[in-house]
Structures
1.
Amino acid sequence: MTKKICAVIVTFNRIACLKKNLNCLFNQNIPIDKIIIINNNSNDGTKEYLDEVLYRHNNVIVKNLLQNIGGAGGFSEGVKTASELNDIDYIWGMDDDAYPKEDALENLLEYANEESCLWSNCNNDNDFNEKDYKKVTQWMFVGFFIPLNIVKKIGLPRKDFFIYFDDVEYARRIIKNGYNIFKIKNSVILHKDATNQKVFSRNIGNKQITLFALPDWKLYYYIRNHILLFKWNELEKYKLILWFILKFLPKLIFVNKKQLKIFLKRFY
């Protein structure tokens, strides 16, 4: 039976990345039935470029938002738009800086079924033992693949997260509802990873203390959303709160005290 696929792309002020991403999608071995592009109020010519895309491709849907609602809001809007289409079976979502190889979708569809979610290999993962797939408990919103019937069961991604942990929260919700997530080795997406992220660091004697260097607004969501992942009756929330107090806070005070106010506000 033919499976109808809808790709969901979220973009913000990265027109060069978006062009490369769409070129990859248009050149998949298996044609994508619909492509939804959520434009988070870009001001770099993205809207004008997408007007040209709409003129050339009749399977593209563009939503130009009036404000930037972040990756979380964008994916929530994209999944919502896809779920309102009448002839879609699966949603394949990613950022604008994700570049799927030509057989990425084809290799996903080998494992597609209505009772499981899949995840493309977007981080050069080779830890698959003898199989070409493995069960995972977390994923990123880069190459996530979800049956429409599961979306209708569990709801949309949380748009209030803006950035950070929206994908983790959605994976937890999927698993809590009795579904599995499998990562597919040969569904390869080239994606910029965080290994080159800047860090704050200071030395204590021979020991170096490091912490990821996040701007204030990103630190804000990193702390808040991390804690919001868990409900008040979940033990994990209290373990995380202790970790923030005993591990994260001392590091922050030592390497970048300027952000202490942001931490305390969001932690509270």
2.
Amino acid sequence: MQTFNPFLPSNEYIPDAEPYIYNDRVYIYGSHDRFGAPIFCMNDYVCWSAPLQDLSDWRYEGVIYRKKQDPINKFGLRLLFAPDMAAGLDGRYYLFYTVDFAGRMSVAVSDTPVGPFVFHGYIRFANGRIWGSRSGDELPFDPAVLVDDDGRIYLYSGFATKVPRLLSRFHSLQNSGCVVLELESDMLTVKTGPKLLFPRQGNHPDHDFQNHEFFEASSIRKIDGRYVFVYSSRHNHELCYAISDSPDSGFRFGGTLVDVGDLFLHGNEDETKAANYLGNTHGGMVELNGQWYIFYHRHTNRHSYSRQACAQPLIRTPDGGFQQAEITSCGLNGEPLQGRGRFEARIACNLWSREGTARYDRRFPKKRHPYLTQNGKDESPDAVQYITNMRDGSVAGFKYFLIEKLERICVTYAGCCDGVMQISAFAHFERIAAQIKVKTQGLSMNAFSAIQFDDGVTALYFRYLGKGALDFYSFELI
């Protein structure tokens, strides 16, 4: 079986995914978005897992923790932000999270990796005072947890922006950057810290981090005896890493691991010329079957509130670091997709309009750009995800396929359009491999064409030229 990006079902919206291996399965723990939501993280925590021998076989483990279980969220009106998971010294599993900007770091515990988790307590100091309860504390946010080989436990946390007004009514908490704390074995009590580890932009950051200063999305791994800290930079759409021989000091900038628009990959930093639309990202690293992967998320529905988990393989550098990964449609597949059969348009890794791309924010010009959407309700088993609003000059790209003796191609589309769909191996369409007439007024249609493609590993780009707007559902390689 093949697997694609995003690797979970099309109606599942898991951002901020942290992957961990337990009992020959990989589990992902993330926050839980809702399709079409007005804000981040509206759903309860769920878990998905897959056997290491088949990364296409993802299993839904169900709801593992509900919003209402936290004492400060009894009515479930507040949001569960990005969590992290750690196996404790007692053999139990600990879920660290924050209830939006409440100024608390919460912990839940379970006897199994998939719950049910029960509320365990808030991170607190030895005198019982809860971290975040006093003016001047650092804001607890985006936890990352490491249980080191020597049994010492480290908690990382940070958010490099102003505290929301709602929170500041009650506290005056600091957002200096990322801090590290050492915890006691109870996974609740602060042993030392917090200590500022990664200052935010403008807060005297180390020279090596200029242009890639810490913003949010802490994640930590120990790899080959060194500590690798993953984070989202001030650009907000890239995951970077820093590396050190110590878990609480001495980190130096390693580079970009992945960017949702492939910025920085070939020296391009122009957000209007990204390979995909831009929004925040968050994720962690894991080694699966001898290959390291970075997990991150992509965006749908023209905003950053319906995000989906993706992953890309990482190539090691001679010094033990990592090269920046390219965003692709194949991800966990481990090799190019077989160039035969039907593929849903939702696995596009590249998407842009004639004007290029933009960042998903309040100023996003929604009418002019293509985007991913679905035709069913959140979590509906009948939901179908597709690319909509492909106007004149819009491009959807898919990487990569192993093409062998390809003869024909079929596209399934709808919308209100009158034009052609061009197919090429090149992002700028230097050579056209096929051109298909597309015309409809709301009905779903199939259109075929002969195609001329050289055998080998290649990308596929689809460009719509014409009037109106096209909805792109799928294509078939024959």
3.
Amino acid sequence: MHRYHFVIIFSICCIGLGIYLRYTAVTNTIVKNPFMADAGEYVSYAYNLRYHSIFSIQLPKFDNNQHYQPIPDAIRSPGYPFFLSIFVDQFPNSTVLDRILTAQLIISILTIIIALLFYIYMLPKPFAILSALLVSVSPHLISMTTYVLTETLFTFLMLIYTCTLVVFVEKPKTLTMFLSGITLGIANSIRSSPKYLPVILIFFFITHYGKKKGIYYFTIMLLGFWLVCIPWIIRNIVSVKAIGDPRLQISFLTHAMYPDFKYNNDPKTFGFPYKFDPRYPEIAQSTISALKEIVNRFMREPFVYFKWYLCKKPIVFWSWNSIQGAGDVFIYPVKASPYFDQTIFYYTHQLMKYIHWPIVFLACIGSLWVWFPLQLPSSRHQDLIIRLISLILIYFTLLHMIGAPFPRYSIPIRPFLYSMAMYTLFKLKTIQKKFKAA
């Protein structure tokens, strides 16, 4: 059989396995309270958008007051609530939940397919299929499909964004870069974590396209990005008299300023140390007060805080278990899951857990390796994409070293982690062959 046929067969098997695992997880997982915490807030926004055309976290009210109007706010990013508003045509119930999870199931399957095509472009076929297989069986990516949370949609959009960069690298065009910026803007509307990504990408553009062209392409991408963001800013100025609500940013900075996620090193406070800090209301008054507190803590205990921020936070960010969650790959507690009683789920879970840290280590090596010119000729388009992947991984790691490094936040960039790990394996194999040949 021709090698091309093997690639097709293995690709189909990889996608088929991913479809089976996701479909089974969505149809057999029972979340105890699917609309709790963040999920409940997103659904409230969606309901208010659909029936009142107002972006508000306020819980829907059902009474005889026909003039009820929720109070607008800007606490959450708007993208995911707008997505949910397609399905929330009544007060959240099992029917609404089924619609949302079915949509996320489709998006998660498309993510596997797009990831596979992306990997085939940037890696030799065996390593590309292996990367896609890791996406297919990843318990974290599968588990997130069963929750009304942003991760599944955000993962998909970040991959789409990277694919637009692939098209641009193949044939640089202004329109492609503009569309790339729009895609990143849409991803940013789901979760605001990529909002500073263009700043780090300017380094890539100048390095590979020269100062003049690099700044030009960067500016075009920024225009597309802001085309999506500006309407939201204008809405906020009109509705809430501010560019945005700082509360999430303050939480992002302060919830993880406690070493090892503990208040006064007390194990009972693990995961939620700020709830036990009597000074927290004072610290969280503003972004300035939060930053001042962090600086003061560094001054008082420099070794402890440098160790926490520079060494421990990256490890926590890429760790396996959720911290502010139900543990393992679960965010909210579940009554039933195929990971509890189905063989294929058990073995894929154990395999991924076993190889998790080796994958993280390989990806870390690869993310640095790609920037050594002697190891990587920058003329090849695939190599440019690999460098972009390394920048994405570095950016998100640095971002969460500054703020909250909850492992949940690393889930949407696991597809990039897997591809970088496989790239490192490919380079190591190439070096091994050279040594044998010598």
